[in-house]
Amino acid sequence: MNYIYWIGLMLYGIIVIGSMITVLLDRRQPAKTMAWMMVLIFLPVLGIVLYFFFGQNTRKERIISQQSLDQLTKRSMLEYNEQRELTIPDQYLSLITLFMNQNLALPFQSDQTEIYTDGYEFFPALLQAIAQARHHIHLNTYIIEDDPLGYLVADALIDKAREGVEVRLIYDDVGCWKVKGRFFERLREEGVEVHSFMPVHFPAFTSKVNYRNHRKICVIDGTVGFIGGMNIAYRYVKGWASRIRKKKNNKWRDTHLKLTGSVVAGLQRAFLVDWYFVDRTLITGREYYPNNSLTPNPSPRGEGSGQTSQMISQEENLSTPLSKGRGGGGEALMQVVTSSPTSPWPEIEQGYVRILLEARSYVYLETPYFLPTEPVLFAMRTAALAGVDVRLLIPMHIDAKLVEWASRSYVTEIVEAGVKVYLYQPGFNHSKLLVCDDFLASVGSTNVDFRSFDNNFEANVFIYDRELALRVKQVYLDDEAQSLLLDDEQNLEKRPFMQRLWESLVRLLSPLL
Known about the structure:
Blueprint: H1 2-25, H2 30-42, H3 46-55, H4 66-81, E1 86-89, H5 93-103, E2 107-110, E3 112-116, H6 119-131, E4 136-141, H7 148-162, E5 166-172, H8 181-189, E6 193-197, E7 217-220, E8 224-228, H9 235-238, E9 251-253, E10 256-260, H10 264-279, H11 306-312, E11 322-325, E12 332-339, H12 347-358, E13 362-366, E14 370-371, H13 374-385, E15 389-395, H14 401-416, E16 420-424, E17 427-429, E18 433-436, E19 440-444, E20 448-449, H15 450-455, E21 458-464, H16 466-480, E22 483-486, H17 497-507
Parallel strand pairs: 1-11, 4-5, 5-6, 9-17, 13-15, 14-20, 15-16
Antiparallel strand pairs: 2-12, 3-10, 4-7, 7-8, 8-10, 12-21, 13-18, 16-22, 18-19, 19-21
Helix pairs in contact: 1-2, 2-3, 4-10, 5-12, 12-13, 14-17
């Protein structure tokens, strides 16, 4: 029977070598390539299993045809063109153009924006908006728990479905693994259209498990939208149910926005693209894009946005003027930017890098998980060394110990470059926000880590407006006031040798966490 052993060993060797060649040919970041090479070499059998489920690269795949994407984008482009004088600030023209070219993220105006910093503020507003729906409710969430709050939201959706309102729900299959199937069946039985994103049940349990829809978007009647970091879970109003639950302070902090105005068309497009992926139904009716324009529809005039407009749609020849300046009309300018592992480029990561490298005065960031990719790490160090006030706020403790250990080595590195790092103490800060130079801000679902930039389907809104940026800045400063500053006096490098060695070893796995 020895020949069976040698045949099996030979087949295993072929699989390992083939996997390593595939990893090399994927042209990933060197850190990620080395991490997977180490896993394949030093973890026999288990390494292959991990690679099969979590390591395969899907960035070159297309999950939606260009023709279907064009159909789903036409209505939002019409809304974009109905805006009268869309004024782009000089300093962010290149960033806005980047998002337009890379992501079809069109700049829109918003007339009102509400900022919520905890569940006590956000969920009543969400339930009120759901209660006022007359035509449709579109909800995309990473997690909707079958807990008291989840049932409250589910009951609200069911009530509207019974009234004849179209209700569509997308939830992430992995994010909701612990949720009983009966919870979603009840919604379906009551008329709510429900789909899980990329179900990974055996035997279809493949590398899809690594690519999750982490977006949190809700659109009501095409006129009101929500975007941010909050899932639908009781912990946002009850406290942090985690392994450090015994701590006195267990508040769960997060940031979410309520938007009205033309920008809701950007949220609607993002949802309907995801809906097409899960349901294969093209929803493009005008009723999903009611006239949200803040000013009457003009005839085209002025200089057009030539190349960008042609890229967006050669068939429609749409070219709303993009004039330079400091902004006008008092309305906030925004872009809803999505990213995914199937996009040619990591759009939100590119945006963060550009913001950091072009910042003049400061960049403040909040993220629950800090495992930065090399481009973001380089940009943070470069900005700090150039004299920009770069600050990072992360939780004192998080719910994943491996991530916490790996994060510490990155924190040490950026502190040495002059980045100010703050540890949030009242509980778990799950907020994902950025604010820069009193004029630019971003809020959404994207963490500053490999998973969000490379593997997840994410959505952020980028805001170009002084008043709103200052409001987001105040949210950051309020959190900073409750945080501990890591500085040179604490001598991070004087921690026990074995602790620093362990953190550095775990850091090697950070692209996989």
